[in-house]
Write a structure and sequence with these properties.
The chain is 71% helix and 0% strand. By secondary structure, the protein is mostly helical. The radius of gyration is 17 Å and the shape is elongated.
């Protein structure tokens, strides 16, 4: 089920993996591993930003520019993950690999924003970052 979900999610934008002889490797190993790592790392980055740095530690990293720094760091990690997955599974690096990494970055940005909206309420200092909505304090 996870394999089909992440394969469908990535192939929706990218199309079939290139070169074609690595299609099964992408669908069975690379897409699911990358998707799960994307989800877990993005969730961890959001939780660290809102709950560790801006609730437990009260560091003062609550401004939108600090949120953007975490967003960019998450995007860089999201770009590296697919390339590491492809090279780690002995699949030849191709332009498809870099498009896959770019699509993963886009998904990481969307997921980071969604997680931010969901989890910002628990933060003491960063409850208005990246925007005040939906809070009404």
């Amino acid at each position: 089920m996870i394999q089909q979900f992440f394969s469908g999610l990535y192939e929706l934008v990218l199309g079939r993996p290139i070169p074609a002889n690595f299609t099964n490797d992408y669908r069975e190993v690379v897409f699911p591993n990358t998707g799960l790592m994307l989800f877990i790392i993005t969730l961890a980055m959001v939780l660290v930003y809102y709950y560790v740095l801006n609730r437990m530690m009260s560091t003062g990293l609550y401004k939108p520019r600090h949120w953007v720094m975490f967003l960019v760091l998450n995007a860089i990690i999201a770009f590296i993950i697919p390339i590491a997955q492809v090279t780690g599974n002995d699949i030849e690096t191709h332009s498809y690999t870099y498009m896959f990494a770019f699509v993963n970055v886009i998904y990481s940005l969307i997921l980071f924003f969604i997680f931010s909206i969901l989890f910002k309420r628990g933060s003491v200092q960063a409850w208005t970052t990246p925007m005040k909505w939906p809070n009404k304090k």
